From TrEMBL:
Belongs to the DPH1/DPH2 family. It catalyses: L-histidyl-[translation elongation factor 2] + S-adenosyl-L-methionine = 2-[(3S)-amino-3-carboxypropyl]-L-histidyl-[translation elongation factor 2] + S-methyl-5'-thioadenosine + H(+). GO terms for molecular function: 2-(3-amino-3-carboxypropyl)histidine synthase activity; 4 iron, 4 sulfur cluster binding; metal ion binding. It comes from Candidatus Marsarchaeota G2 archaeon OSP_D. This is 2-(3-amino-3-carboxypropyl)histidine synthase. The lineage of its organism: Archaea, Candidatus Marsarchaeota, Candidatus Marsarchaeota group 2. GO terms for biological process: protein histidyl modification to diphthamide. The keyword Nucleus does not apply. Transmembrane segments: none annotated.
Length: 343
């Protein structure tokens, strides 16, 4: 069988194929599902072909990019195991699953001089990274220490594995050291994790983007935009006559107990409003449009904490983060700074 449509050796990620092959062989798996973060899907057919050549196991590519380790199947049908690239696991599943972080092979040390220049007025620096780039943090830590800085790395939250690691819903490693540092530095592709970090801490955030080769401070305007989105959704919730509470059925996002408590709470604080609970696997456009057509004015979701801000532009109705409902009604809304953030 011919593979090699994508040269894995030249890809910017370490897929740890030797470890994958050993795991499949040792467990004698015959049919394996391959999952990954959206940006890695293009490599999966080639990886599957290689696994077939080396083990004789059949592989199938999951065509929907997975946005985190929370985004996995509750039950696995038709396969013996899953290899999941691009995340670290934090939930127990009823089937075998091997998580491969897909560490970046990009030489981020080329940006260290830019980092040092950007930190000229900062001494104590908190270090964070998305999982692809946590392998760079120890080297950066030593570099900054040699050049007169005092670097810090926090211990990971329950949804992360490595010191300094952050994911979209867990910035605890940075929050734990926020009071000790003058600023935070995060190595991550794109703005997703950098803006999430800036929303989670009180100190400035320096974003190192290894793919673009840029080193820039996260601007206040970007943070303010997210807070305006959250403020608008909060105002809508306060005035809405019809509210949809949505639980996400994915095993890493499922929080039916919170939805049940919020339904009781909202019916008490909004006695003239209609509050109904829903469940869905994906909070997609079709589902949201259906709610709007039914007359719902706002969605309160207990799923991914980033739905409320990252999906604002495409959502036909405002989305509000369920974990902030109590803060909104108990402490009110500061329109200038956005919704009170529950830590």
């Amino acid at each position: 069988m011919a593979c090699m449509q994508v040269n894995l050796a030249e890809s910017p990620y370490d897929f740890e194929l030797d470890r994958v092959i050993d795991w499949v062989r040792q467990n004698n798996f015959k049919k394996v599902l391959l999952q990954s973060a959206p940006g890695l899907i293009r490599y999966l057919p080639e990886i599957g072909c290689y696994i077939k050549q080396m083990t004789s196991a059949d592989t199938v590519v999951d065509g929907r990019g997975r946005f985190g380790a929370c985004d996995v199947y509750t039950n696995l049908t038709g396969f013996e195991a899953v290899v999941h690239f691009g995340h670290t696991g934090f939930i127990n599943t009823s089937y075998p699953i091997l998580y491969i972080p897909a560490f970046s092979k990009i030489d981020a040390t080329k940006l260290f001089h830019k980092i040092l220049d950007a930190l000229s007025n900062m001494e104590k620096v908190g270090l964070s990274a998305s999982v692809q780039h946590v392998n760079t943090l120890p080297t950066l830590y030593e570099y900054l220490a040699r050049n007169g800085k005092k670097p810090f790395m926090g211990q990971p939250g329950k949804r992360c594995l490595y010191p300094g690691q952050v994911v979209g819903c867990d910035y605890l490693s940075a929050i734990r050291i926020d009071s000790k540092v003058d600023c935070h530095l995060i190595i991550a592709g794109g703005e997703f994790h950098a803006i999430g970090l800036a929303l989670s801490v009180f100190k400035p955030v320096l974003h190192v983007e290894p793919y673009a080769g840029s080193v820039e401070w996260v601007s206040k305007s970007k943070v303010d935009r997210v807070n305006r989105i959250r403020g608008f959704a909060a105002l809508t919730l306060q005035s809405a006559k019809k509210v949809a509470l949505v639980d996400i059925s994915l095993p890493g996002q499922h929080t039916s107990s919170l939805i049940e408590k919020l339904e009781v709470f909202l019916k008490r604080v909004k006695p003239t409003s209609q509050v109904n609970s829903f469940t869905t696997e994906l909070l997609n456009d079709q589902f949201l449009l259906g709610l709007k057509e039914l007359g719902y004015e706002v969605v309160v979701t207990a799923g991914c904490t980033r739905f409320a801000t990252d999906d604002f532009d495409r959502s036909p109705i405002p989305i509000f983060e369920a974990r902030e409902v109590y803060g909104l009604y108990l402490k009110g809304l500061n329109v200038d700074k956005g919704v009170f953030i529950l830590q």
